[in-house]
Each structure stands twice: as structure tokens, then as C-alpha cells.
Design goal:
With 592 residues, the protein is mostly helical. It has one domain: Glycosyltransferase (Alpha/alpha barrel), CATH 1.50.10. Helices cover 46% and strands 9% of the residues. Helix 3 runs antiparallel to helix 20, helix 16 crosses helix 17 and helix 18 runs antiparallel to helix 19. The protein starts with a helix and ends with a strand. The protein binds 2-acetamido-2-deoxy-beta-D-glucopyranose. The site of 2-acetamido-2-deoxy-beta-D-glucopyranose has 6 residues, from helix 3 and helix 19. The site of 2-acetamido-2-deoxy-beta-D-glucopyranose (NAG) has 6 residues, from helix 3 and helix 19. It holds the Pfam family Glyco_hydro_47.
Amino acid sequence: MPFVKSKIVSLTLIILGLVFLFSFYHRSQGGSYFPLIPATKPSVPPSENSDYVWAHVPQSYPVRELSRLPQSIPKSIPIIQHSFPHESREERKVRIARLDTVKGNFTHAWQGYKTHAWGSDEVAPLSGRAQNPFGGWAATLVDALDSLWIMGLKDEFEDALQQVEKLDFTSCSLEELNVFETTIRYLGGLLAAYDVSGQKYPVLLRKAVEVGQMLYVAFDTPNRMPITRWRFHDALKGVPQEAGDGVLVAEIGSLTLEFTRLSQLTNDDRYFDAIQRIMNEFDSQQDQTKLPGMWPVVVNARTLNFHEYSGFTIGGMADSLYEYLPKQHILLGGGSQQYRKLYRDAMVPMKEHIFFRPMTKGADVLFPGDVSSDGQTPLSELHTEAKAQHLSCFAGGMVALGAKVFDLPEDLDVARKLVNGCLWGYETGRLGIMPEIIRTVACEDTHNCVWDEDRWHHEVNQAFPDDNGSVEDKIKTRRLAPGITKIDDGRYILRPEAIESVFVLYRITGDRSLAEKAWVMFETIVKHTITDIAHAGLNDCTVDDPPKQDRMESFWMAETLKYFYLIFADPHIVSLDEYVLNTEAHPLRRTV
Ligand SMILES: *[C@@H]1O[C@H](CO)[C@@H](O)[C@H](O)[C@H]1NC(C)=O
């Protein structure tokens, strides 16, 4: 009976681990945020498989002293969710009908994956082909596990676990693995499925540990900074590694939640230590950048220069670095003040230079833009590009969460305007969907901004200097809504960020108009993206008959449909007072 035996072995290891932990309990040192302990803790955490090859790849640059997970402080995190009033019978009826419709669409996509691509990373929603762009470890399946559980699809969930059992993280369909994507989708997906299902399915933690052990090898570099685009097969052979000299901050700066949760669940501090080293670099150089408080999009992880480059954004390539600051504070249960400081200092330049008010016919909203600094120009003259990415639509949720967690009530107003910005992006979209990237006219005065048709026309003309014809022609042929000067990228690839922020703000404020707007978004998106097999991204959502892509990214079922579902679910389901959601919408259980 191997099952029982392995339980006894695990139990013994847990006890040994606890004894060991307690022997170092009082050895904390002052001076740094996290006490350091010698790295001589048992290297085999409770659920680890000792035959696993990644566990035996020798570390060339072993850690000498580990940062230890800080003790969380009970009641240090303010209540986040709104106290929702009792709903009427009629309200409940509408809500449940919507919930079922979202679930019906989720099931439709799940069946398409199951029929055509079971065990592969993705199903192609037009051709039905199976595709493996994420290593070939069933990305869609792993990413959707917690959604299955949350939506009450328990049989499907248990079916999927048999596939999880078979996942082999010692072989990979790619030469180069994206460590960030692997962390947020696979590690986050497995940990969250383990947490939301009440920690009753040990295979999920076992597989999460396997992913963690694999990824931990990417940190085996001279300065312990991880390689973000990682040559999997070379690493398996033990080829010496060095961190990259041009690394995207989102990829190196948002591994914190998943690695922290893994340490919490295994009592193995190595994972937390691995990411804490990164965040200490961000911390120590936060004031030295060309936009102090924020970090450039690209940093040099090889030389540990995190301040030199010039481009600043909270959109793609940087986004989740910022998103994870308040979330990591919550997951650590207020046991550290470091993430409060990082967030607070980042918000100052963000409010001043990144958030801008677009000129609209009446809506007082905000978008996050981009800032480029040449390092010479004084900060007060920095130019904000009035560009809005769908990816940056997470910002409303981040600012709303930060407002609650760090008790900054005036920020809730900023959060509302950011959410309304993306809703404006949807409402002014040709089909009712916001494209990937749009350009707008930035108001000169945020507090006083009236619609100026000439200025809009002027900027449209500037955006298309080579087009013949009148400005009216340009607006017509380019399908520009009032206030929009150019559509840089007209795709809609089933992204979640706008509904994510609507969800967070709704759970925080209880504002029912948000749920109504969410419903309109849902119906519109589904109408244009549904296929016989599943749902498909749109190549251009600025035309009436949008051409579909043969692709459904795993975040559609992991994030977009989950957020739609949760908006219409009982607010106690995945309560923000019990869970922290990673950047792939995977709910990680809070310890306090
Ligand atoms: C999917 O959503 C659409 C739009 O609301 C709805 O009409 C349809 O019935 C849903 N599909 C399923 C299978 O529930």
C-alpha cells in the first residue's frame, strides 16, 4: 500500500522539518527586512519526490544564508470586501441566470479543449488543432483547474487531476522556457487549485513542488538572479548559467506570490529566499532610476543594474511588477513593511507621470500612459504618451486594492477613474470591445478638461501625416471614435485586465452598476468570439465583422471567464479577504 507508506514518510519529514525550523526560530537578525538563517535546513520538503531529476541537478552557486518567511501579523490587513446587502428575490434570479450563462460558455470552451486537445497546451478554436506553446504540460488544463472547482464542475476537475498526475516536468516541448509564464500559469494554477479545493488533493501540491524545484534551478547563477528566458535542456545537463543583461521587469519582478505561497505550503524557505533577493534589488535602487519610485522596463540582472534604462510604463513588460506589491503585502499577512514602502514610493510618480486624463466628450476618466526619459530632461517636463493598452487595465484593480490594504481612501477615486477609463475604451470600441492599444488626446489640465474638436482633429492629422484627404475621411476610414486619434493595435485576444479591475472594484465598493457593465461586456465579447469549438481571439475588433484568430490563450478560461463568473457569484466565493489572486487570476489562500 504505497499510499499509506508515503503518508508515513511525509509525516516523518514534516515532524523532522518542524523540529529543525524551531531550532532556528530565535536566530533572527536585525537590519534587513527578513531574518537570515543558515541554509542548512533539510533540503527535502514534506511532499518532495526524491527521485525527481531536478532535485539532483547540483547547484553551482548554492545559497549560504536563507531569508526566512516573515511571521504574518493577525489583523494587520484591513477588511477588503464591501459588506454586500441582502439581495431581493428578483435580483437573485437575474444574477443566477447570468452566472449560468457564464458557466455555460466556460463549459463550451472546456469541452472543445477536451475533445480536440486534451493534454496539450491549447486548442485552436477554429481548426481544432492541438498546440504546445507553453512547454507541453497542458497549460489550458492546469490554468483552468481552479475555475472548474469554483464553478462547481467537480467531476471535470477530478478528471483533469488524472492528467495532472501524468505531467512530466523533466521534458519540455520548447528549447527556451519563459520562467515567468511557467510560474504564473503552472505554479500559480497548481497552488490555487490546491488551495481552493480545500487542500484535499495532494497531487496538486506534489506537482507544484515539482514545478518549483525545476524553476529553482533557473536561479542557480553567480548572483542568484534567475534566468527569465531559460534554456531548459542545457540546465538539465548542468551547463553553467548567468542571468540576462536585458531583462523585462515584469518577468523578474513578479514571481513573488507563487514562490511565497510554495514556501508557506512546504515550510521550505528556499523559494521565498529566491524571490526576496530580487525584490531587495528593486528596493535598493528604487530611488536611483530616471523616474525615481518606478523602475525602467528593462534591467540588467547580470550586473544588478536596475536603474539605468529610460522607458517607464505599467503596461506590458512591466505591469505585474507593480500589481504584485500590494498583493505580496497581503500574502505575507503584513509580516513585512517592505512591500508597503515599494508600493507607496511607486505610486507617487505613477500618479504624477503615468496616469493621464484623456480628452473625451464628457467622461472624467484616467488611463495609464508611458513615459520616456532621456535622463537629461527635468522630471517636471517629462512627456507622457497618451497611449492606453488593454494590458494596463489591471491598474484600476491594483489601485483599489492598494487603497483598501494600505488605508488610502482617496486612492479609491483614482481607482474608479482608471476602471472607468477602460470601460470608456470598451464603450467607444466599434463592437463594444477595447482593442489592445489605442491613442488618445491627453488633457492639459486634469481638473478642467473640455472637449475640443479642433484639438482632436489636429492630433488625428498628426497621427496620419501621409494620408490624403480631410480629417473627416481619416476618422471615417480609421474608424476612430471621438477622442481616439489612432488604434495602434486593433486586436482583442480574450484578455482579462478590464474585467479584472471591474471585479476588484465591485467586490470593494459593491457598486451594482459595475455588475451591469460587466454583463454588457460579457455578452459583447462572447457574441464576437464564440466558435463551434471554443472561443477565439479577434484580429481586429475595430471592424464590423471581426476576423477571428485560430487561438484561445489559456487565460480565457483561467482569468477572463473566472472574473465574469465571480462578479455574478456569491461575494463570499473567492473572497478577497481570504485569497490573493495572482496575475493569472489564481487565488492563493491567505494565511491571515
Ligand atoms: C454563452 O453566452 C451567450 C451570451 O450571453 C449566451 O447567449 C449563450 O447561451 C451562452 N452559451 C452557453 C452554452 O451557455
